[in-house]
Design brief:
Layout lengths: L2 E3 L6 E3 L15 H9 L1 E5 L6 E5 H5 L8 H10 L3 E3 L6 E3 L11 H7 L12 E4 L6 E4 L1 H5 L7 H11 L12 E4 L6 E4 L11 H11 L20 H11 L11 H4 L4 E4 L11 H4 L5 E4 L1 H9 L6
Antiparallel strand pairs: 1-2, 3-4, 5-6, 7-8, 9-10, 11-12
């Protein structure tokens, strides 16, 4: 069995002939093989001249000799060709793959202004139909019939030319008298049924027309007198319910006020003549002010 020398630690060791790697590195152990792979080389940065360590794997991959990305970018920038701007004459650099004539977008735009533009055409002078100011436009815009120098002039001219019956959509208005204030006003035919000159007059008229018995939700008005036995029956109902709201179970002590007593069947359905039936304890229930309001409005129902 031939004796060979470890190429990392220098130790001699026996290696079978069939396992000797020709044209490659031979090591006495995996530890030496791993250490050799990790062992690199000290290089000098191509940009700043600083010495740095690089592993053998990186060297084998053909990595450029720079100590950092910043040095790599700086080196690339330093190798860029220098050009002269055709507009301002300033020197500038650009990547070798790009051939540039101008140092910036501003210089490029300046070069293509006026006659420098390959598709340049002589502008045509036009007088504004509204203000009389002279302005220039391309021939293609003049052919489309441009008449005004600005949107403001166009708006004012349209407002003058198409006012009232000059407007092609004009329809004759109808004269009417406001039913509330008596003031004359006019409306288009589409609003022929309008009765009032303004929203304020409409609100005033509606408040007069739809009130009391004329309101669709009128239910007889507020009852202020529930008969001579009402206060006695009210006390009995509160005592029977242990001074507790029958919906939310809040007590009078917690709310620091007396509970309301609600008629399950409204009192107005009985009338004052049948007050004893209306104020019977079976028709009364104790409720807190909040639950009483919600029951009256129909938001909640009694248990």
């Amino acid at each position: 069995m031939p004796v060979i020398k470890c190429e990392y630690c220098g130790k001699e060791f026996n290696q079978p002939s069939d396992k000797i790697k020709h044209n490659e590195y031979n090591y006495c152990s995996r530890i030496c093989a791993g250490a050799a792979r990790r062992r690199g080389q000290v290089l000098r940065c191509k940009m700043c001249g600083k010495e740095f360590y690089r592993s053998r794997a990186h060297i084998s991959k053909g990595k450029p000799p720079f100590c950092s990305r910043a040095c790599s970018y700086a080196y690339r920038r330093s190798q860029r060709p220098t050009w002269i701007c055709e507009t301002c004459g300033k020197d500038f650099t650009s990547p070798p793959s790009k051939t540039r004539k101008y140092c910036s977008n501003e210089c490029r735009a300046e070069a293509f202004k006026g006659e420098g533009n390959p598709i340049y055409v002589e502008p045509i002078e036009i007088v504004c139909d509204y203000c009389g100011k002279q302005f220039s436009v391309p021939p293609s815009v003049a052919e489309r019939g441009k008449r005004f120098c600005s949107k403001e002039c166009m708006s004012e001219a349209m407002r003058t030319e198409f006012a009232g019956d000059k407007n092609p959509n004009w329809v004759e208005h109808i004269d009417k008298i406001c039913e509330e204030c008596g003031k004359p006003f006019n409306v288009p035919p589409s609003e022929e049924g309008r009765r009032f000159c303004s929203r304020e007059c409409w609100n005033k008229a509606r408040s007069k027309e739809i009130c009391g018995e004329n309101h669709p939700r009128w239910n007889g008005g507020k009852v202020t007198y529930y008969g001579p036995n009402w206060h006695r029956q009210r006390r009995k109902a509160r005592k029977r319910d242990d001074y507790t709201c029958q919906v939310c179970n809040a007590t009078e002590e917690q709310l620091e006020r007396e509970h309301d007593v609600h008629h399950i069947i409204p009192f107005r359905e009985f009338g004052i003549e049948r007050y004893k039936e209306a104020n019977a304890l079976s028709n009364l229930v104790s409720l807190c002010a909040t639950c009483h309001r919600n029951v009256e409005e129909g938001n909640i129902s009694l248990p």
